[in-house]
Amino acid sequence: MMNLSHAAAPSDASIWLRPRGSNQSGMGQFNERVVLQAIRLHGSLAKADLARLTHLSTQTVSLIINRLLEQGLVLKRAPQRGKVGQPSVPIMLNADGAYFIGIKIGRRSLDLLLIDFHGAVRERRALSYRYPDPQLLFGQIAAMQRELLKQLGPLRAARLAGIGVAAPLGLGGWQALLGSAPAQAGQWERLDIRAEIQAVSHVPVVFAKDTMAACVAELVAGRGRSIGSYLYIFVGTFIGGGLVLDSSVHAGLSGNAGALGSMPLQLAPGAGAAPEQLLSTASLFSLEQLYAAAGLDESAAYDARALQQPWLTHTEAWLDDAARAIALAVSNGTCLLDLDEVVLDGSSHPDLLARLLEQTKQALARYSWEGVRQPALRAGAIGADARAIGAALLPLHANFAPDRELFLKLLHTAAR
Predict the structure, then answer these.
(1) What is the pLDDT of residues 188-235, one digit of tens each?
(2) How far is CA 215 from CA 208, 356, 412, in A?
(3) For residue 236, which of 199, 287, 306, 315 sits 20 to 30 Å off, Cα-Cα?
(4) What are phi and psi of 250, to 5 degrees?
């Protein structure tokens, strides 16, 4: 289970405690969030250490801790003895203080995760399909929620604080490529996914683009905590991404910044068909198609069989094309954005993702970087669960982090 309180701690974690608390009156809830954020980023801390980190007075911190203890959001650890003066009592987050559900609706599968206040995954549900049928899918989501709440029991279920939903903005798009029925695809264009799930949920529901949610997970719990600006790439059924500038997710005008899948792979011709997009080459869907043409099980694109015969021959052909296509996107993106790094993650088996990362590095070396600085290319830290975990983190941070405006802006933009 991933614990987001301590994952990928930056070399100087105090720089991530933004902003500081305020000792002025009328700042109670804000200061509570600052204290919670300090504990989340640094682990258990004594009140004196919390006061130093947050620039709040010891009296203010003491009052806040008492309120948080009453709310069940923090716990006292055993006193630390052996030092001069009274033994200090470290304060830690209560993992059972609040729960959040993250729902990822994808083109091939549905994932539903329950995370606790530490950010650890407690429960999961999954559903695979050839194409997402909205008439059936929302009923399945409602059933999964009922089952999960029943399993939690009334006391823990009462601590469910929010639900985050991550899905592609164009879930009904690319009909010709996917072979979906136009009528079925058209239903997604008319649906408000957040409203559909809110109708069967008793807590607030928020929505974000799936790869943007994955980018949030990497920013909050992965390598993004130590990188200022980077392009995030997620290779799933389709390829997509997100953009982090100055340690903040940049959503863009319509919540679709980092839409790498739509990036063209060559110049548009003077006449005729438009050039292929990145998603037609560097997505796991294109790997599925190679398997299908050879009469092989397409689902191997998502597990260890991808690097075993008879699938391996087709996988290696896909890797060569996908790596060169991603390298082109990275090169173009770097020229525009002057990136610190590029983070690559995906829903494939980790060994396949490692091969893709290495071959993309080799492809990047074939470009001329004169006039620009080549960014480092690194593997993501979250993996296949990034979209669902990122979805669950949205309500967690909207409810309990001091930088909630960042997440509200992200959500409001994506909802347009």
Answers:
(1) 778 899 999 999 999 999 999 999 999 999 998 898 878 888 999 999
(2) 11, 19, 17
(3) 199
(4) -100, 110
